[in-house]
Every structure is written in C-alpha cells, then in structure tokens.
Amino acid sequence: MDEHYDCIVLGTGLKECIISGLLSVEGKKVLHMDRNGYYGGESASLSLDQLFEKFRGKGTKAPPTFGSSREYSVDLIPKFILSSGLLVKMLLHTDVVRYLEFKVVDGSYVKQSNKIHKVPSTDTEALASPLMGFFEKFSAKKFFAFVQDYEDDKPSTHNGMDLKKMPMKDVFKKFGLNADTIDFIGHAVSLYLNDDYLEKPAIETVNRMKLYAESMLKYKKSPYIYPLYGLGELPQSFARLSAIYGGTYMLNKPIEKVTFNDGKVHVTSEGETATADYVVADPTYFPDKVKKSGRIIRAICILNAPIPNTSNSESVQIILPQKQCGNRKNDIYVGVISSSHFVCAKGKFIAIVSTTVETENPEKELEPAYNLLGPIVEKFVSVTDFYEPITDGTQDKCFISKSYDATSHFETTCADVMDIYKRITGKDLVLTIHPNILQQQKEQQDEEGSEN
C-alpha cells in the first residue's frame, strides 16, 4: 500500500463512491478505503438479520414470520430518484446505469387536512385534484400553465415578471393562490424542506417544478424511480466503475492515522502508509473538521399491508408539509417499497419515515406519519447527527461530504457531490457522457463485432 495516489477516498457511502468513479474515469489514480467490510457506509442496505443485529443487538435474529433474511435489502437512508434529476444524469454520464435495474414508484402523495392526496404536477391534474376547491383550481391551472410555458430566454413567457429578482411569495400572490395550494406546490412538487424558499428568487422554484413535471412525464405514475434490490446497489455500481478505470478498493481497513504535511496527505492503515495529493471522506473520518448542524430521525417500519388510501400501491412517497403537522419547521417524509423491488418478502412492505429533529422527543415528532401507515409490525428507530465540513478543503486538501439529510430524493446528495467535485478540480461537473466512457463503449462494440 506504500504508494502515491492522486486521491485517497475514505468511506464507501454513495457520495464517496460517485466521486471515486468520476475521478477514476478522468484518469486519476484513486485508492478507496473503508473501515467497514461492506459498501455503502451510512447509505448501505441491510439484510433482515443485519437490521435486527444493528438495532436489537449482536446475535439477534428476525422472527421466522418475516420470511428469509436474504429476501430483505433495507435502506438505512431512504431516498427515491427523480427520473430526470441529477442522479440519473450522473448515472448516464458515467454509464453506471448499465449495472442497475429500476422500477417506477407507483405514486406521490401529500397530506392535507388529515387526508393524503395524489400530488398534481400539471394544469390538467390540478383541475381534477381534490386538494383544491372549485375556484382555486382555476388559479392553480393558470399558475401551472405559466410554469410549463416559462422559458428563461423568452421574455414573452415571463408574464411581466423578473423571476431572478422577484421572491416566490410574490409570484404566488400574483396568481392568487391560497396557503394550502402554496403548501403542496412548495413541499410536494418543488420539494423544499421548509418555507425559506418563499423569500428567495422565484426562478429556482420554477426550475424545480419544471424538473418535477419533466420527471413525471417520463413514466406517468410518479416522477420517481427506485433501484431493484435497494439503494445499496448504487455505491457498489459506482465502485465497480472506479475499479474498471483503475481505482483500488480496500474494505475492512481501519484508518489509524491521517496526517497533512509536505503538501501531501498521509493515510496509515495496519502499519502501512499511502500518500495522495488530496483526500475525500465522509464526516465520520474527520470529527475535528466538521460541525454538527442538526439531527435526523428515521424509522424503518415493516408492514403487512400497503398504506391505506394509496390504491393498494406497492410503492409510494408521502410528504407531510410542516404546516400540516402542527407547529413544525420541517416536513416529514414517508417512502414505501415492497417485494416488487426485491427488498422484502412477499406480502411485506417497508415504510421509512424521516424528518429533521426539532424537539427533545424525536420519535413523537413522527406520530403524524405513523398515523397514516396502518398497523406497524416492527419498527427500528435511529437518530443521527447531521454534520457538515467547517472549511471547503481547498487549503488542507481534505474534502469532506455532508451527512445525508431527511429529504426523500437525491437532489441535495448530488448537489453536494457536484460542489466537492468543483472544489477538487476547479471546474464544474458537466453531466454529459465522458469521452473516456464513449471510447470504452466503442472499443467494447468493436470487440463484440469482431467476435461475431
């Protein structure tokens, strides 16, 4: 291991594996290490016995009524993938998409007045939605039509507004939308965690709505897709990409010491030291270089039936906007998957509830979501700290990712990856297929052609 690398990556969470893959494709010499014996780190997917051991203690086995442990692949950090979002662009950019299979999530719902309703994302859906009264529907239809038609470089579509300056609350006011309609647009379509966006320029919200609608158009059922066999497949697939392009992977490697001198990073494991120009790591490897900025609670719930009032859907997302859950500042998210995604035994459903902690009794904060789930057979609850780096890493060459937030999608995850990539390389990540991958695809086609 006593070698010099361009980059040493510590931890095999999804963010670290994406960065490792991106750098390897660009020809960088990458060493990737993890203290654990499995891929995924914080974002791993566990078998049922692993889940019981993690939450109930070593040696604890799942009851036989749950079926075979091997049938389960339960995400520790649940998220869905927007079908036109950043993660899909990264999967296509790196050709990692060929290692994965996806299934469309059956529906996206939002809580309003103690009921859940399917989220409308177009002017047509808005007219049919029970979320709004008769007159409100026409205001919403006009607003959705404006968003669908809006083009940044065509002033004729701007309706006399400068969205780069005008706050979103003023745009809503112009269309006469009421508080409940604004609530589901901001939280269930634009996917904001809280209401801070209302004071910010409207262009970001409009772009988020367009992304949601574009994702919805792809598969019609919902804007989300999910990988078969769980999210743990994602870091493994990016790790495979890195290995194809020369990346070296080492699991079960305890990190004994990391020092920064001579303009290099020195990482020691089991008595051997490797050096690199820079290091990328998840927050757990450098507790002295991160700050705690919140806590996230997640509850993994095993159910025997689909969520009530979701048309017996095998998979759904439910967003509970903050205002629908009492005096909260953050939304609550529910993601449901089932045996159709090969993540649990037939007849079982996995519902994972998550939110940003606001009180001294975190689990009580999840009660509005629990009330929607129906009978819960088994529940595993965790509260984790949310960390972010103190510095941007450009001085000490130590680039640290943020912890995973409570959102039910990967947009913030990918934004963090793109930010780290820019800090490392000094350039934006352009999400088109990389020339090195195009070359490899061509060589592979030529090889297959000659064999035939």
Task: Describe the structure using short key phrases.
single chain; 452 residues; FAD/NAD(P)-binding domain; Guanine Nucleotide Dissociation Inhibitor, domain 2; Guanine Nucleotide Dissociation Inhibitor, domain 1; 3 domains; seven-stranded mixed beta sheet; 12 helices; 31% helix
Q: Could you explain how this protein is built, in words?
A:
The chain has 452 residues and is α/β, with parallel strands linked by helices. The chain has three domains: 4-44 and 232-291 and 387-439, FAD/NAD(P)-binding domain, CATH 3.50.50.60; 56-106 and 295-386, Guanine Nucleotide Dissociation Inhibitor, domain 2 (2-Layer Sandwich), CATH 3.30.519; 116-219, Guanine Nucleotide Dissociation Inhibitor, domain 1 (Orthogonal Bundle), CATH 1.10.405.10. The chain is built from twelve helices and 19 strands. Strands 1, 2, 10, 11, 12, 13 and 19 form a seven-stranded mixed beta sheet that branches. Helix 1 packs parallel to helix 9 and helix 1 (14-25) crosses helix 11. The model has no long low-confidence stretch (mean pLDDT 91).
